[in-house]
Specification:
Pfam families: GFO_IDH_MocA (PF01408), GFO_IDH_MocA_C (PF02894). With 368 residues, the protein is an alpha/beta fold. The chain has twelve helices and 15 strands. A hairpin with a 3-residue loop joins strand 12 and strand 13.
């Protein structure tokens, strides 16, 4: 195999090499036959740097290590940057990458930024860089059962979509470096940090943009006995969110983060005027039926994607995300999930957080 510094190689840098950064590193290792290599990383946290160095060495990659993204940019060692640093750092990092003279393609982890204003600033800046592909890491679209459901919706198997219901019942937030994910100011709030995935899917299934949001939620079980620098976490651990779309479709999110006793973590249901489909994750099952056929004729299939070489933390979706992103940066298409998608997913989350805080109905125009 050609050397990693060969010009035919696509050279990657990763900014933020904590748990998700290392997950990207492993996925890229599994894609090395596509002619790519990770050549550098940036992270201010020495333990994270060491874990990444050891991991990369096990893949036969020697990494150049920087403590910040500015040094990585100035080194001009890479063509592509994966941004997987804490949420509250995304805005500055993206603005610096976009304004840097040498173009770097970017895959930024969700959420795009923690506020709508920051997302809009990034979007405006990126419009001036036609030499860059910027994709947002809303990879749940690529989970095989979800992708199959998207395919059925696009094929109009269920007719005109009228309702989208998404249930995520899961474990609490994991421990992150310096516990940054315990506070809304750092994450954007649970409905931005975690649920931007589901708001993105709702928009996709509805084929429309949101108009207004109504939500109820709270911090009722998790993190109440934790204290960091004298502060108790303020991130909600459960919520119901209802969203109305401009084509009359409705979406509902049911989130619970103290539901470890669940068979599936995500249950996604899309109902149209002639039929209904469901995707179950991690079972990997898709069910579909029609109003005419009724319960007797509901079909169940196991959704799989033979392209996946590494399942990882997200059932192979990160692998497929990198595969499609690689096609886009090599000129075989545009960013599959663009900055507008990233902005709208954050806006829906921000509106939901505001609705809970102020106990009222919030229009998307208010937050945009």
């Amino acid at each position: 195999m050609a050397d990693a510094m060969d010009s035919a190689f696509t050279k990657y840098g990763i900014v933020g090499i904590g748990m998700m950064g290392r997950e990207h590193l492993i996925n890229l290792h599994h894609l090395r036959d596509q002619g790519l290599a990770v050549v550098c990383i940036a992270d201010p946290h020495p333990p994270s740097q060491l874990l990444a160095i050891e991991l990369a060495r096990s893949f036969g990659w020697e990494l150049k290590v920087f403590s910040g993204h500015e040094e990585l940019l100035k080194s001009e060692l890479c063509d592509v940057i994966v941004v997987s640093s804490p949420n509250m750092t995304h805005h500055q990092i993206l603005m610096d990458i976009i304004s840097y003279p040498k173009p770097h393609h970017v895959l930024v982890e969700k959420p795009l930024c923690t506020t709508v204003a920051d997302c809009k600033q990034v979007l405006e800046a990126a419009k001036k860089r036609s030499d860059m592909v910027v994709q947002v890491g809303l990879e749940y679209r690529y989970m095989p059962p979800v992708a199959k459901l998207i395919e059925k919706v696009k094929g109009r198997d269920f007719g005109n979509v009228k309702m989208v219901a998404i249930r995520e019942h899961r474990f609490p937030f994991l421990v992150k470096v310096n516990n940054w994910n315990r506070f809304n100011v750092n994450t954007g709030g649970t409905l931005v940090e975690k649920c931007c995935h589901f708001f993105d899917l709702m928009r996709l299934f509805a084929g429309a943009n949101p108009v207004c949001v109504m939500a109820s939620g709270g911090m009722d079980v998790n993190h109440k006995d934790e204290i960091y620098d004298g502060k108790v976490p303020d991130i909600i651990d459960n919520a119901y969110v209802i969203i109305e779309f401009d084509n009359g479709c409705r979406g509902m999110l049911d989130l619970c983060m103290f539901a470890e006793g669940s068979k599936n973590e995500q249950e996604i249901s899309v109902t149209g005027d002639i039929g209904k489909g469901e995707a179950l994750v991690p079972e990997g099952i898709v069910r579909s039926g029609s109003r005419v056929g009724g319960r007797k004729h509901v079909q169940t299939i196991k959704a799989e994607d033979e392209r996946i070489k590494y399942e990882g933390l997200h059932h192979g979706s990160s692998y497929l995300e990198h595969l499609t992103f690689l096609s886009a940066i090599r000129g075989e298409g545009r960013a599959a999930i663009d900055l507008e998608d990233g902005l709208m997913a954050v806006a829906m989350g921000v509106a939901a957080q505001l609705s809970i805080q102020e106990r009222r109905y919030v229009t998307i125009d208010e937050v945009l």
